[in-house]
Write a structure and sequence with these properties.
The structure is a homodimer. The first copy, chain A, is mainly alpha-helical. The first copy, chain A, is 68% helix and 8% strand. Chain A has a three-stranded antiparallel sheet with strand order 1-3-2. The radius of gyration of chain A is 18 Å and the shape is globular. Chain B binds a DNA duplex through helix 1 and helix 4.
Chain lengths: 146, 146
DNA sequence: GGCATATTGTTAGTTATGCAACTAATTCGA
DNA sequence: TCGAATTAGTTGCATAACTAACAATATGCC
């Protein structure tokens, strides 16, 4: 199997880099152009809170595949911008429950719009079936490693 | 099209996050366990230099899909660790040509080994045809956006 | 009840990323 | 040929990632 190692390296860079950085960069740019002043990382956290409010930080770690310090700091910044609030849980005082503020809620519709547009652009010409298969492969990679 | 926005958001997080962070983290861990003291980002640069020595920083930007400041700083760190050398080009004095040192060269075989093992583990149970298709989708996403 | 263990979140330190603004060298066109 | 535009690389600033070590709270077992 000649040059197997090189093909692996290229595959690695595809999975970890090419598409994701291009997509992230484009979405960030579209946010900025539209006057939406959050990072895509912040958006990826808000996204899960819009779906369900009052999650713990650990819940957000699981949902966004980040570690705890990353979530701590993302929430620090989101709190600074008054987009979310940390509320200590009454049942378990170790936990913070995270709630979206009114300001944070107002970002939901415009950013969903932008994300849809950007994803549609990114996936133009890709059949739905291929998208599903690609997603399944990435899920499998994740499951194999987690 | 109900909940289209949520499906897009999940797709986004798949493309940009799930598999790539898991894979990067695992590879970094395997490097560390084997006493290979470089980050995966440094590895991704060395990988291209092992294939072809003496590339310019701009070449490395194109090969690794990073911007110029990122490459500047990755090379700063790689130079500090004496894994590469910057040599000013004689033809065009704006350019640095990057060469792998003997120390850097010695990392090639063990890291290729580790990358292969990790990728094989990550892709276990995924048919080769699906891998190719997934790669093609990601390439298409990149081409659509670049 | 009390102590070992696990869980939740924070802090510190290093590396990396993106954008914007900058310097220096080269190229191109009037 | 000379000045504008382009290209290669660097620096400053803000945000984010991972690891390791830590504090506080909760759980479970004797």
């Amino acid at each position: 199997m000649p040059n197997n190692q090189f093909r692996r390296g290229e595959l690695y860079s595809f999975i970890t880099g090419v598409a994701s950085t291009a997509l992230a960069r484009r979405l960030q740019k579209n946010f900025k152009q539209d006057g939406v002043d959050i990072t895509i990382e912040q958006w990826s956290v808000l996204y899960h809170l819009w779906k369900q409010d009052g999650q713990s930080q650990q819940d957000l770690c699981n949902a966004t595949f980040r570690d705890k310090p990353s979530i701590t700091r993302l929430l620090d910044n989101l709190e600074k911008q008054k987009l979310v609030r940390r509320v200590a849980s009454k049942e378990d005082r170790r936990m913070n429950l995270i709630y979206v503020t009114e300001t944070g809620r107002r970002l939901q519709d415009p950013t969903h719009e932008l994300a849809n547009q950007t994803l549609n652009e990114a996936l133009e010409g890709v059949p739905q079936a291929d998208i599903e298969l690609c997603k399944a492969v990435l899920q499998r990679v994740y499951d194999n490693l987690k």
